[in-house]
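Much of our argument rests on the idea that a fold can be written as discrete symbols. In the encoding step, the backbone of a single protein was reduced to a row of integers, each denoting a local shape. This step matters because it turns folding into a mapping between discrete strings. For completeness, the protein is quoted in full, as a sequence line and a line of structure tokens:
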Amino acid sequence: MSSRRSRISEEEITELISKLQSLLPETRRRGASRASAAKVLKETCNYIKSLHREVDDLSDRLSELMATMDVDSAQAEIVRSLFRS
């Protein structure tokens, strides 16, 4: 590995932070007001954590649902087909 690192300009960082900010639901609701890079990064981390919690919750709910289904039922086949897509 090379010890040289590619440099990223302040303008590129500002552009990347702006793009990141546009992906966050909270900042989209508030409008286009500029937030500090630190605030955008903190909100991004919080949003990713909330997505992880949501995925875990949905996974748990799916597991519970699958446990109550007859494995040969039409409903179970529909759920399995969704996973194949």
Observations:
- The radius of gyration is 21 Å.
